[in-house]
Design brief:
The radius of gyration is 21 Å and the shape is extended. The longest helix is centred in the first third of the chain and has 32 residues. The chain contains seven helices and eight strands, in the order ββαααααααββββββ. It is α+β, with helices and mostly antiparallel strands.
Length: 179
């Protein structure tokens, strides 16, 4: 009989330390729930510190243009990136002393996708649809096997910061305890 935890298969060798495992999972869930409660407060404090309300009150442009050189230099081709409100936000962040991500994270990697997925795989695949403001929904992640991974560099470790950049970004520090 197979044992599961949060719908993930648990090897039989771990069942013998179930009490300790239950305690760790309970503490992690409690910490996660506390983080969810504090997140809106922290977000509001951050927005207040950068005087977000004054930026929101500025009328938004309906049309804006950039040059071909602007496209080339930025390496971007999405209209959202070039909207003037984003430049105003970047300027404001510089004014208050905020640092760009490249100054905080020295090893910025992009994820990768496996060639195939399997329900019984030992590797959890985190996609952008699994990333939310307060963390990763591991229970919704697909799985794969070690044998089909294309890039072992694209894995998460304790302390990693995950940025969901498919539109409006979401940033959080994850709570992964092992590779």
């Amino acid at each position: 009989a197979s044992t599961t935890l949060l719908n993930l298969p648990v090897p039989e060798s771990i069942v013998s330390i179930r009490s300790e495992l239950d305690s760790l999972v309970s503490q992690a869930v409690k910490t996660y729930e506390q983080g969810k409660e504090l997140y809106p407060e922290a977000e509001n404090e951050l927005l207040e510190r950068i005087d977000w309300q004054s930026l929101r009150e500025i009328k938004s442009e309906l049309f804006y243009i950039d040059t071909a050189k602007g496209l080339d230099v930025s390496g971007r081709f999405d209209a959202e990136h070039f909207h003037p409100r984003h430049q105003r936000l970047r300027t404001k962040l510089v004014e208050i002393g905020a640092l760009p991500i490249r100054d905080l994270c020295h090893n910025i990697d992009k994820g990768t996708q496996p060639d195939e997925y399997t329900d019984e795989g030992e590797v959890v695949v985190v996609k952008s649809k699994n990333v939310f403001g307060q963390g990763i929904r591991f229970d919704k992640c697909e799985r794969t096997t070690i044998g089909v991974l294309k890039d072992w560099q694209a894995h998460l470790s304790e302390g990693d910061v995950v940025i969901n950049s498919t539109g409006f970004g979401t940033v959080f520090s994850n709570t992964i305890k092992q590779n």
